[in-house]
Structures are given as C-alpha cells and as structure tokens.
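Thread: quick sanity check before group meeting

JM: Hey all, I'm pulling together slides for Thursday and realized we never actually wrote out the predicted structure for the chain we discussed last week. Dropping the sequence here so it's in one place. If anyone has concerns about the input, flag it before I start.
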Amino acid sequence: MNILFREDINQKNKQKLIEKHYRNMDNNEAYSILKNAGEERCEIIFNRISGIQVRVIPLKTMEPNFSDTEVHFFGDYRGTPLAFETVDYNEQGIDMVRDAIRWYAEYREYPEMEIKNIEFNL
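JM (edit): ok, ran it. Output follows.
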C-alpha cells in the first residue's frame, strides 16, 4: 500500500497542471479562451495568429441568437449540447473554424467530441 503525504499530493497536482499547460501549448500555442463580459456563460476560442474567434454557447443554459453572417457548428460535451458560432467571420476558412473547435475539445479534455454542422436532436 502506498501512502502519499501532503507534499506528494501537492507535487502531483502541480505536475498535472504543468502537463495540461504544456499539452495545450503543444496543440497550438496560438489559442486561448476568453470570457465575454456580456455573456458570462459563454467562452470565446481565440486564435492570436489568425484572429479567428469562435463563441461557445451552452445550449442547456442559453438561448442562442444566431447571426446569418456567421458560421455555426454543434457539439456535445459529455451530455451538454454546445453551439459554436464565429465572431466577425471574414472568410478565414472553414478549416480554421474546425481547428479552433477541435482545439477546444482537446482543451476540455474531450477530444472525442463529435462536431457537426447541423444541430443535434435536442
């Protein structure tokens, strides 16, 4: 039986945080998560290099107000349906939008998230 002391536990937690940070950097150092002051429940995926922004909308707690000029995708995060909507999209390329969403799934430690361009049956 292994006995862990407080120092060991703190060191393991610190190592997990460091590993998560580096794992996210390896995926693409250009991405970060922003919060929108007007929408506390939403997150924004931001790519500092391309400038692309994708809003993450939890559909269980928010009613989306989709814009016709933006690109939309849908995903399911462990039973929570999500909508992804670009912000000020200016034809950066649909693959960049998908890459941002895929990065977000990995960031949330759910890389198997299914992403669709049509809404799930909610």
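AS: nice. The CA atoms of residues 3 and 71 lie 52 Å apart. DSSP finds two helices and six strands in the chain.
JM: adding both to the slides.
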